[in-house]
Amino acid sequence: MARRRDRPTVNPLLKDQVAAIVGPVERPSQSDRERTPPKGGAGDPAPPRSAGRGRSARKREQGVHIKARFTRSEADEVERFARTLSSYLGTTVMGSEVTRALWALAIRSQDELADLTGKAPRMDRPSYGDRMAMAQYEDAIADFLLLALKQTPRS
User: Fold this and answer.
1) Which ranges of the chain does DSSP label H, i.e. alpha helix?
2) In contact, 123 and 143? CB cutoff 8 Å
3) In this predicted structure, what is the pLDDT of residue 24?
4) In this structure, are 114 and 148 located in the same domain?
């Protein structure tokens, strides 16, 4: 087997196939470039230099992950629910989109959560090792959130 540095950098067979399909690449001459107006048009102002930076900042912001741990049966249930919701809405809905929507609902109901603090039971967080206590803890959180969501006005 050839060592990596002995291998050709371009496969000549593939290069010929691509050239046969696409054809030779012709670079425009200087006179062609002078006749062709810029992409934005002759009178259009150039976009601000910060426009590119804004796009990369958005990409960076979109790349943030918030993790949630599910058991295998819960993950299967989430997948099943996403498929059911997809059929109701007539579009493909991913589990992550449902998670973001649920967080958006919870954030939207912050005022109602604050109003319900007097009705909230005092809860102590159990250890991760106690699965039954953790399930009960999460159910109590879900009940409290449901109460707040029911009182949240639609926007």
Assistant:
1) 12-22, 30-35, 50-62, 72-89, 95-108, 110-115, 131-151
2) no
3) 52
4) yes
Reading phi first (left if > 0) and then psi (alpha if -120 to 50, else beta), residue 114 is in: alpha
More confident residue, 64 or 142: 142
* Residue whose entry in the numeric block shows the structure tokens 């593939």: 14
Q: Which residue has the higher pLDDT, 21 or 109?
A: 109
First vs last Cα of the chain: how many Å apart? 66
Is residue 78 within 8 Å of residue 70, measured between CB atoms? yes
Please report, for residues 40, 45, 147, the alpha-carbon distance to residue 36 in angstroms, rounded to integers and kept in the order given. 11, 17, 63
Q: Which residue segment(s) compose the domain that 76 sits in?
A: 70-105
Higher pLDDT: 27 or 133? It is 133
What is the domain count for the chain? 2
Is the domain of 100 the same as that of 117?
no
Q: Pick the range with the lowest mean pLDDT from 57-66, 75-84, 102-111.
A: 57-66
Distances (CA, A) of 135 to 5, 41, 138: 57, 62, 5
